[in-house]
Amino acid sequence: MVSWFMDICTGVSNIMDVSVFIWAFFGVLVGVIIGIIPGLGPAVAISVSIPLTYSIGPLSAISFMLGIYKGGTYGGSISAILINTPGTPAAAATVLDGYPMAKQGKAGKALGMALYASVFGDAFSIAILCILAEPIARVALKFGPAELAALLFFALTVVAALAGKSLLKGLIAAVLGLMARSVGMDSITGLPRYTFDFIALDDGFSIIPMVIGMFAVTEVLNQIELRGTSSSQTLLPSSSDPSDRWVSWRDLKHCLPIFVQSSFVGVGIGALPGTGSTTAAYLAYGMAQKRSKHPEEFGKGSIEGIAAAESGNNAVCGGALIPMLTLGIPGDVVTAILMSALMVHGLHVGPLIFDDHRVFVFSLFGMLLVSIFMLYFVGRVAIIGCRKLADMPTSVVMPIVLLLCVAGSYSANYAMADVWMMLGFGLFGYVLNKIEMPLPPFIIAFVLGQQFEQAVRRALVLSRGDYFIFFSSPIAVGFLLLAAFSIFQIMRSARKRG
Amino acid sequence: MDTKKYMIKDGMLGVCVMVFAVVYLIITPFQVSSVTDGFENLTGRTFPYVIGCATLLLGAMLAYRSFRNASRMQSETGAIEAPNGNGRKVAYYITAIALYALGIEFLGYVVATIGMLVYAMWATGARDKRVIAVTVAVVPAFIYWLFHYVMQIPFPDALLL
User: Fold this and answer.
1) Taking a contact as any Cβ pair under 8 Å apart, which residues of chain B between 27 and 66 contact chain A?
2) Please, which residues bridge with residue B42 across strands?
């Protein structure tokens, strides 16, 4: 314990080198800006920055890229709250309560809560990374396809919690999301499904254009319909209540248990390869809604919703580094790119990293700890700058948002087909709004559907078609029991609502 | 709002969902291969069939529940809610976005974006020519620079220019 603590102190002292500090700060700043712009995201920024880091040391390079990762994950919440456009797919859960709060004149409070939740989730996951990286990696190794399928089944039951007023409509939206996810190449057989011989559909529907279309384009169309051509209206109303301008200590104290619960979810999900921050955000959101004393407020401007979504998705950052560093297995797309960047700089991750590169690893931990404060500072500055958006007229902001959405959708795969998908999903989202069908179940089923199907089919291939594999592991049984309990609670509350 | 009119609308929605599910189940054998994963009980069609059947069941439940509740309600009286007349503007806006996407491919990003920005600002109520001019001069160039040069995301070449 003492030697571990000394190693952390050595790590923190190593990053006090001015150049490392500056690169880390610059990374967080770039990450936040990139995260705000819909469709870009930290993965694109990190992959572009790899060649830029050839001439700087490995610690500075990795600090820069990790800064982009953390900043980008947080930055998506700003556009999610102010313009109903999640900057990253993970911020789609933040939209559910962030934008309604902004429309009530509480944009400042929503942005403040998103910042504190993000910083808490980030700090929590880094603390877990520093202390428990190796034990968590060993548990993550025990997760095979059957355990992953059980976990994702439990996550899918969260869908029902997001159904809102009508459980049936929510479930219909969810199965439509599963249908949308089945378009594209079958990942097990490699054969196309529902592509109708369109090459553009071979990879299925991309999540970035889908999320941008269903939130941003739908909102633009709703604004056109509701407001017509009133150019004098500002994007968001302002509130006369001073307590709406920033989050209070009372709000933070109230949401502290949500921060902790959601951060645990984020670290756990991040440590599992192939899941990611979108799954963590929605799962944390759904669990917070179930535990809340006022679940009916979720989706209408509940500060607890923002707290859960943001702490969940930011906690993934540290969690995803656990399998990457200790096992050489990337937790998500961003860590896969980071692994390649580490290799370029001569560092090989895996079980021996603590022996071969101990100083580097603890310097990295030190940088991650210090960058928590950088994230808070950059976030405060970004909020002040972006807050001006709310005072601008919709006739200027909405068209610019639309242009960024088109460019962001295109940048997902460098294909105009994604722009058409964005438009198609925008129309689809508009129609769903008209028939009062909720969007969140569609999106979460879309996100989880393919992983769930893959996990089930891989498990059955391993067990040679025997379904008992899902009941043979205590981890899988545990998650299935949780799912059964979740379904029971949902049926009970649906019956109470009548 | 649980009025009779909304119940009937939900019922029709349930019927549409059922029709969609039936179509989905019918086209599945033509769009999805029957190659197994190595075991007869599992193919690429397994999940689509499960999803299709679930959709059919849920649509039927929604239709049944809604029509049953509607039959128990009395018809509401009073003025019918008139549309606000902006539905046509929405249709024009959607068409404009589609033309913008085509414009990017044929005219290039900057030219198409300038045209779209002018229309979009006018459609949302901007009438100050100076504001429109400044926005049109700055925003497309900035976005092009950010994506094309900084993020190295090449926009498609203009096919006509």
Assistant:
1) 27, 31-33, 35, 37-44, 47-48, 51-52, 54-55, 58-59, 61-62, 65
2) B39
Place of tokens 């639309």: A402
Q: Got the DSSP string for A281-319?
A: HHHHHHHHHHH-S-GGGTTSS-HHHHHHHHHHHHHHHHH
Scan for tokens 């739908």, then name that residue.
A218
- Rg (alpha carbons) of chain B, rounded to whole number: 25
Strand partners, A193: A184
In chain A, the residue whose alpha carbon lies closest to the alpha carbon of B103 is: A416
CA proximity to A65, closest of A314, A472, A342, A372: A342
**CA separation for the pair B133, B42 (Å, rounded):** 60
CB B31 within 8 A of CB A196: yes
Which among A217, A207, A177, A208 has a CA at the least distance from the CA of A426? A217
The torsion region of residue A340 among left (phi > 0), alpha (psi -120 to 50) and beta comes to alpha
Would the pLDDT of A235 be above 70? Answer: no
A271 within 8 A of A317, measured Cβ to Cβ: no
Please say whether the dihedral angle defined by the alpha carbons of residues A461, A464, A466 and A471, taken in this order, is positive or negative. negative
Beta strand segments in B65-158, E: none
Query: At a CB cut-off of 8 Å and minimum separation 6, what does A115 contact?
Result: A74, A376, A379, A380, A383
Per the CB < 8 A criterion, the answer to whether B127 and B74 are in contact is no
Separation of alpha carbons A487 and A484, rounded Å: 5
Chain centre to alpha carbon of residue A174:
19
Answer yes or no: do B131 and A419 touch at CB < 8 A. no
pTM (predicted TM-score): 0.80
Which pair of structure tokens corresponds to residue A79?
């556009």
Residues 6 or more apart in contact with residue B21 via CB below 8 angstroms: B52, B53, B55, B56, B59
Q: Centre a 10 Å sphere on the Cβ of residue A1 and count the other Cβ atoms it contains.
A: 6
Other C-beta atoms closer than 10 Å to the C-beta of A186 total 23
CA closest to A404 among chain B residues: B143
Q: Are A34 and A45 in contact (CB under 8 A)?
A: yes
Report the C-alpha gap between A10 and A347 in whole angstroms: 19
Per CB-CB distance under 8 Å, the chain B contacts of A394 are 124-125
DSSP state of B146: I
Q: How many CB atoms lie within 10 A of CB B116?
A: 23
Here the ipTM equals: 0.89
Pairing status of strand B36-39 against strand B42-43? antiparallel
How many Cα atoms sit within 13 Å of B91 on the Cβ side?
4
* 3-state DSSP helix/strand/coil % of chain A, to nearest 5: 80, 0, 20
Which pLDDT belongs to residue B16? 94
What is the 8-class DSSP label of residue A197? T
Tokens of B32: 């999805």
Answer whether A383's CB lies under 8 Å from A358's CB.
Answer: no
Tens digit of pLDDT for each residue in A23-71? Answer: 888 899 989 988 888 777 787 778 777 777 777 778 888 888 889 988 9
pLDDT band at B39 (very low <50, low <70, confident <90, very high): low
Of A248, A272, A261, A216, nearest in space to A427 by CA: A216
Instruction: Output the CA angle A95-A259-A13, nearest 5 degrees.
Output: 110
Whether residues A175 and B54 touch (CB distance < 8 A) is answered with: yes
CA angle B86, B87, B90 (to 5 degrees): 90
Return the DSSP state at A453.
H
